[in-house]
Amino acid sequence: MFLALLTYVGIVVFAASGALAGVRRRLELFGVCVVGLTAGLGGGIVRDLLLGVTPPVSFDRWTNATVALGASLLVFYVHPHLGRLRGVIGVYDAVGLGLFATTSASYALDLGASHFAAVLIGAVGAVGGGVLRDVLVNEVPLLLRRDLYAVPALLGALVVVVWAALGGPGDLGLLVGTVAATGLRLLGMWRDWNFPVSAVEPT
Amino acid sequence: MFLALLTYVGIVVFAASGALAGVRRRLELFGVCVVGLTAGLGGGIVRDLLLGVTPPVSFDRWTNATVALGASLLVFYVHPHLGRLRGVIGVYDAVGLGLFATTSASYALDLGASHFAAVLIGAVGAVGGGVLRDVLVNEVPLLLRRDLYAVPALLGALVVVVWAALGGPGDLGLLVGTVAATGLRLLGMWRDWNFPVSAVEPT
Amino acid sequence: MFLALLTYVGIVVFAASGALAGVRRRLELFGVCVVGLTAGLGGGIVRDLLLGVTPPVSFDRWTNATVALGASLLVFYVHPHLGRLRGVIGVYDAVGLGLFATTSASYALDLGASHFAAVLIGAVGAVGGGVLRDVLVNEVPLLLRRDLYAVPALLGALVVVVWAALGGPGDLGLLVGTVAATGLRLLGMWRDWNFPVSAVEPT
């Protein structure tokens, strides 16, 4: 119950990030909703395709699309008033990242994926929606540009998989993994951690 | 038979739209054909992947690729003479949109997808080829920019699904859905209907 | 054994091409590795999704990702010294193209795909990683712009499929197909063969 609630929070946050990207591109209402739906549901759809779950869950469960659509509409109509929420949105985004990483990894394990596959699929589930969002609006994905974004996702998925391999209770593993991933992401944002750029430009 | 013929018309129209986009980008002959094939077959391939049909039908049925390739070659060599056909192409495109939406939805139902999934998969099958085309040539997808494009696709798929749920004969449902979707698309083009753009630009 | 070795050579070459594209885009280390992994493993992942192999092999076999990651790191740290290797990389890339085309086609046949599907899936497996790489870094795919790139891939896959249909020994077919595809690609590079561009720009 708590888990399902958190999943919807993740969808809302990612859908809002997509809708905001659409508004910035001056898209019409419908285009904004499409980018919002893509960002909110895309990670889970890619995860399902990698796991052979067809149709993907978001195509069967109407609540996912409805929640993502609602968040997109909200952003479209109230974004001028979102200014002060920007910092908070960064926090929600970090929570969504952690949550999608751990729930996707756990879902992959449940469907019989290997440990290695579960870690990768967890990370792809966490970052996939954002990549699709950026490809749609024709930008180099934030994943590639942003400081330390996918590493927390890998960490969260890894915690879940190791925890499960050690026989720990699943719900607690999800919680620990999410806290670890979200915490590392927030720490990276706060400390402005970055990976190096190559020193010499290729000719 | 009539249905199969219309499906090929849809592939031809979408392949031609892709090839034209490639010509505009000054691609070589082969690149033009690749974009044409992607636009003509992409929607069906995405639909099949979402439904777990592997390999996708267009990889198994050589006629689909052949028809799309022929349309691409035709556009490459005769596009300077297409000027006057532009308006007519808009009509064919609307027909293709309606047809792909209804046949994809019907196909999804046949494979046991839920009603909700069939509507979404119908719409994705109708717009998917165009999105892949635009991503390949590095543009923001028309789907996101164009007035009222995906709504007719959703309508067509919805008509097919509701019709089937009410127990109506399938062929007639396909026809009604296609007419509804194509009609709404043409009406939107004729009346220049648009969705609103957000009033305030985010800072 | 020899085949497995060559497969890893293919992954290394494509991963290096992706990492180099990332370095040129001034991405951070992590982004460079993501593009490298995408280019090195993407073709195989797309091939597996088209064939219904889930999770894709590269998600289950840790060696693939490790090799691609190693190649990406190498490029990131030593690319300033790669200048003289550029010509050689073109050769490796041609080898990778041929190898991915033939092994993907052979793999598709083993999984029961039709002859037609095996040829197409072989070509997609060979060019898919490069297309994903270019879409990620927001460029029109080289596949669409480059002289005579996908034709050798189609040839290599075709040789494998015809060879198998004639009952020839599989390993030899892989070798002949790879030599044919790589040879045609190198010949095209050497002779600077190009497809025509449409004479008239559409208005």
UniProtKB/TrEMBL annotation, chains A, B, C:
It is found in: Cell membrane. Its main location: membrane. Keywords: Cell membrane, Membrane, Transmembrane, Transmembrane helix. It is a multi-pass membrane protein. It comes from the Bacteria. Residues 5-79, 91-163 form the Glycine transporter domain. The chain crosses the membrane at residues 6-23, 30-50, 62-79, 91-109, 115-136, 148-166. GO terms for cellular component: plasma membrane. Coiled coil: none annotated. Pfam families: Gly_transporter. Belongs to the UPF0126 family. This is Uncharacterized membrane protein YeiH.
